[in-house]
Amino acid sequence: MKRSYLGVIALCTTLLLNIVFMQLAVHQYFYENYAATLIYTVLNIMLFPLAVIIYKREKNKGGSQSDEKRNVS
Hints:
Elements: H1 5-30, H2 34-61, H3 65-72
């Protein structure tokens, strides 16, 4: 299955931002800055569906391996 570089880079960037926002939320929670914690948590929750959408789009761009095996036989 072929992947586009743009899709892979977008997915990696989205997942990296998820990690960064989670770390920032934990850091702000430790210092009892709850308003910032909620902001980072909401941003993290909003990015997750975006990552799923990008993944499904990239998954559907390539052909499935079962179809390729059927054509070879």
